[in-house]
Amino acid sequence: MAQRGKELLVGKGKTLSGRQLNDTISNGKFEEESIIELSAKTHYTDYKMISYVKDTTVVDTTLSLKKERLFNHLRRDLLEFQSFHNLGSPYNQLGYSFNEANLLPKTGMRVKHQDFLEIQDVKYYRVPTPTSELFFRTGIQQGQVLNSVLTTNVSPNLNLSVAYKGLRSLGDYQSALASHQNVRATSSFQTKNKRYKARLHFVSHNLMNQENGGLTDASVTLFIAKDANFQDRKRLEVNYTGAESMLKTKRYYLEHTYDLWTHKDTTKSSKSALQLGHEFSYSKKYYNFTQDKFSTFIGEAYQNNIADSTYHNTTKNAVFAKFQSPYILGSLGFKASLSQYAYGYNSVLHLESQTIPNRLKGNTLSAEANWDASFKTFSLKSKIGAIISGDLQGNYLSGTAKYSKDSLFTASATLTINSQAPNFNFQLYQSDYIDYNWHNSLKNENTQFLGFSFESDKLVDFEASWALKENYTYFNAASKPQQYDGVLNYVKAKAHKAIKYKKITLDNTLLYQKVLSGNDVFHVPELVTENSLFFTDYIFKGDPLFLQTGFTFKYFTKYQANNFNPLLNEFVLQDTKEIGNYPMLDFFVNGQIRRTRLYFKVENITSLFSSHNYFATPNQPYRDFKIRFGVVWNFFI
């Protein structure tokens, strides 16, 4: 990607090596044709990012529409999400995916985990020279987000990286401050003969949000009416003030492997190997909700001031073996895991109707196996797992088959069957608020997922999925855990096509979804669309600047969106009010100069001349007209 003493150059028609790159961060292909100047010493493919499942991509310094869509503090595509007004605030979901395969329940407080890095989200690196990335974007009222990463190989076999993300944004409304910090460090090592390999990471989060419960009904009316006296949004009343929620976490992770035996055939093109490994992880989470004075908007309380706290600690030790051979067309792996968990509170709560215990604690022993195979243009990834003893029950079966036809198209099919206990906060919860104390015995959620995808540069990209879910667990309108006694039946289809004419591109994505059964407890908009019309070209003499500018239009049909409960940090069911049917139009100007990408965006232009009915929940507005800018800058020493 670069070499010592020489900067990375990206320019159309300029090359020393004559090599064209077509890459994106996810699949190894650039969306914009670029030529990179290289030396004989260092190649762009030497700058690698390695995922949890050991997929490898190169550090990507290109500018594309996909990069524009990922330019947010979560660094993810937000097609199926609708943001609250402030940076670092919750995202309400417009679409869902049920293809995860897990054995153990999660903590809960799912909204807090939207800005949380799981084990599989952490990246490892391998670079020939010190490499860094700086991400900056302005926030909403006295705020910004900064994400910086520095990585280096101190030797060819040892890589170290450190990263920090800080977010602080005041927001437009009362008591809407968001303040998030995330620190992460990784290391990967291999011996000279590459038989022993190890990787480890440390990740911590401090995710704080002031909570206001959204606008009051009277303020919602004034907001929609565009009352001139309330253009200063802090004059609108919110349901309460003086409340904060905080999620603090730390996680330590280690995986190391040893190739016990390796063998190559006489042509040295096929390899057989037996690998043994050990995996360890320890995480602790602490969630608390504090409030100066209880609010009747949430309910009655045992005491005037609220101080709720929940902890969740997990420890996992796993041993595994992996056998690779051309005779099995790939690799076959086995894993045995011992997991210990403790979730709960500091004291037992005795009520007239029941006694609420202080914790859920136990351990599980699980076994898993996977087979990854490939033959010519066909590949298969499959895995199976089950808890064989312990205090919980769970199992899964998952497989993905993929077929590629040269460079014309790739088609794949995925099947996932999963049985898993509901999240811990559905099972046990304690609060100073009277109505938020429960201990439930719940059935496992049973999920069946079938998905198809078709990708083609010349044709339409298409995805379709069908999910059946038994014992679907949710929070009802009273914010109480409840299981659906029927079968949730949910279908989703998404199509994407970019139409290019010279320097103009029209990029279209359409999502259609339908709840065939269970629509009284599961709500989604029927249609979601996102369309971008933009211009791209190199400008100025010598092509120093690559320019990308245009408009993005987003729209979703009306639906009964869930409400947000800040005490639980969960979305809860409601069936009385609808949001949606509002066009959101953004204008953007992005540019690339060498390794620097500059982003400028005017958000929600339609709010200047249309009705004010843009909401993320019935009482939480989306943001008003805003002008924001940012930068992503890579350094290669």
E-strand count: 39
Structural class: mainly beta
For this structure, what is the CATH class? Answer: Mainly Beta
Gyration radius, rounded: 26 Å
Give a quick account of the main beta sheet: strands, pairing sense, barrel closure: 22 strands, antiparallel, barrel
Distance between the termini: 11 Å
Unreliably modeled segments: 1-40
What general outline do the C-alpha atoms trace?
A: globular
CATH architecture: Beta Barrel
**Helix count?**
3
Q: Which fold does the CATH topology refer to?
A: Maltoporin, Chain A
CATH superfamily: TonB-dependent receptor, beta-barrel domain
Instruction: Tell me roughly what share of residues is in helical segments.
Output: under 10%
Mean pLDDT over the residues: 91
**Strand residue content:** over 45%
The number of domains: 1
SSE layout:
Layout: E1 20-21, E2 34-35, E3 48-50, E4 56-58, H1 65-69, E5 81-83, E6 91-93, E7 124-126, E8 131-138, E9 144-155, E10 158-169, E11 178-190, E12 196-211, H2 217-224, E13 243-264, E14 271-291, E15 306-325, E16 330-344, E17 349-350, E18 355-356, E19 359-375, E20 378-390, E21 395-405, E22 409-420, H3 424-427, E23 428-429, E24 438-439, E25 445-455, E26 461-470, E27 473-475, E28 481-483, E29 487-501, E30 504-517, E31 527-539, E32 545-556, E33 563-565, E34 570-572, E35 584-593, E36 596-603, E37 615-617, E38 620-621, E39 626-636
Antiparallel strand pairs: 1-2, 3-4, 3-7, 5-6, 8-9, 8-39, 9-10, 10-11, 11-12, 12-13, 13-14, 14-15, 15-16, 16-19, 17-18, 19-20, 20-21, 21-22, 22-25, 23-24, 25-26, 26-29, 27-28, 29-30, 30-31, 31-32, 32-35, 33-34, 35-36, 36-39, 37-38
